[in-house]
Amino acid sequence: PETMKRLEREVRFNRTIQEVLKALDLKVGEPYVPRLPLVLQGKVFDFYRSRGYRFAEVSVRRDIDRERKEARLTLEVKEGPLTHINEIHLHGNEKTWDWVLQNRIKLQPGDLYNEEAVRESYRSLLRSDLFSSVNIDSRLVEGTQDRVDLDVTVSERAKYRPSILVGFGSYELLRGALRFENMNVLGT
């Protein structure tokens, strides 16, 4: 049984390494540029945070041999625990119903943490045109190492938007309009 567990860990490790290498999209033999370590660090960091490792740490060590014209980059990853969403707390929505925000958030309590889903939730909330700013933070639940609460804080736009339109046409000559729009009808 212990040998089987060790083999399963090795297979899972090798599969993860292959996925990371694919995510890096690195071509061997390409010229080294000084920003490459930072770019690779960001890609590996995103890779792990999009797979549930909210507290992953990635460090890069570079060794450059100018005589041989070689650069060796060593990436060290500390995965940390797989992290799940515990609760989602909404803040700042006074005119907008909670369910409107919840429908645009791509994660639910119990889901594995996924950085890409957090980013998509952020974009979806801003695209609704109900909010002037959105902030999504995650904080560790007290007493645990693998559960986070998401704090979604929004700043609502003004409910009413007045506008004045003025123009000139060949038929009407001077023309204009006064518009008064309700941007958040019934909190939705």
Structural class of the helices, strands and pairings? alpha+beta
Which residue ranges are poorly predicted, with pLDDT under 50 across at least 5 consecutive positions? none
Query: What's the end-to-end separation, in Å?
Result: 56 Å
Q: What is the N-to-C succession of helices and strands? A: HHEEEHHEEEE
Tell me the strand percentage band.
35-45%
- Biggest beta sheet summary: 3 strands, mixed
**Helix amount, in percent?**
25-40%
Number of strands: 7
Tally of DSSP helical segments: 4
Structure explained in plain terms:
There is one protein chain. 30% of the residues lie in helices and 35% in strands. The protein is built from four helices and seven strands, in the order ααβββααββββ. The protein has helices at residues 2-24, 36-49, 98-104, 115-127; strands at 57-65, 70-78, 84-91, 131-140, 147-156, 160-169, 173-182. The protein is flat. The model has no long low-confidence stretch (mean pLDDT 86).
List keywords for this structure.
188 residues; alpha+beta; three-stranded mixed beta sheet; 4 helices; flat
Outline the fold blueprint.
Layout (H helix, E strand, L loop, with lengths): L1 H23 L11 H14 L7 E9 L4 E9 L5 E8 L6 H7 L10 H13 L3 E10 L6 E10 L3 E10 L3 E10 L6
Parallel strand pairs: 3-5
Antiparallel strand pairs: 1-2, 4-5, 6-7
